[in-house]
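retry 2 of 3: previous attempt timed out while embedding adenosine-5'-triphosphate. Reduced batch size to 1 and resubmitted. Inputs unchanged:
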Amino acid sequence: MTTAAPILSCENVTVAFDGFKAVNGMDLKLMPGELRFLIGPNGAGKTTMLDVICGKVKPSAGVLRFMEDVDISRKKEYEIAELGIGRKFQAPSIFVGLTVYENLELSMSQNRGVWATLRATISKTDHMRIMRQLDMIGLTHRAHVAAGGLSHGEKQWLEIGMMLMQEPTLLLLDEPVAGMTDTETEKTGELLQEITKQRTVVVVEHDMEFVRSYATKVTVMHEGKLLKEGTMLEVQSDAVVSEVYLGHGRDASAVS
Ligand SMILES: Nc1ncnc2c1ncn2[C@@H]1O[C@H](COP(=O)(O)OP(=O)(O)OP(=O)(O)O)[C@@H](O)[C@H]1O
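retry 2 succeeded.
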């Protein structure tokens, strides 16, 4: 039997902003096909950790290895994206004046200009890819609606769909269900589970109901470090985790 190699391995990662260590010796290992939740109180360093993985900020110490042997610690953001790491920020970045279909079409061919892409005749293969993607994100019936007219949840799914058109190996999502209705949140959880049949996903999340429903493994960060890793049950019953969360208003429910 062969043991699968990690898709991402972060060792002793530190990020300093003017001497303040937002991430301070963090370790994180992800296996292929994982849906990993990264939680922790406000200011724990979760978003900064995603920023380092996608190359938006550079670590002052530590090593990040992607696909076993590619050291991405010093690579530029676009190089990391080309290697197959996609990052979705909280606010959706979609073209509101274009239709859902056109947004997906554009994300497939980002190195061509907008008008060149939209004027070119689309191949049957590309059309089928877009149709499959629309089906996956549940927006087939909204294909020809301007993206600006979508609901908040639909916009988030469209952006996830746009990222998937680039075929990333690893997807990083920052609070994807923030502001969503309960129904939208549930649909997002199902979508993430579907995505992890083929890819690895890391989700930074504060919505503990959502984490409880969909997490198999949870990583807790505190003061820039790994505090605890395990199932939600293991994490919730940990005394140190409880202590850390106490007094952190919106996060206190994590351990209650
Ligand atoms: N560019 C920056 N310059 C200076 N300090 C920063 C910068 N980015 C983040 N920080 C600080 O680093 C710490 C960690 O921030 P980060 O956003 O990573 O935490 P977080 O766990 O994602 O928090 P939250 O859950 O509130 O989003 C915070 O104290 C924050 O103020």
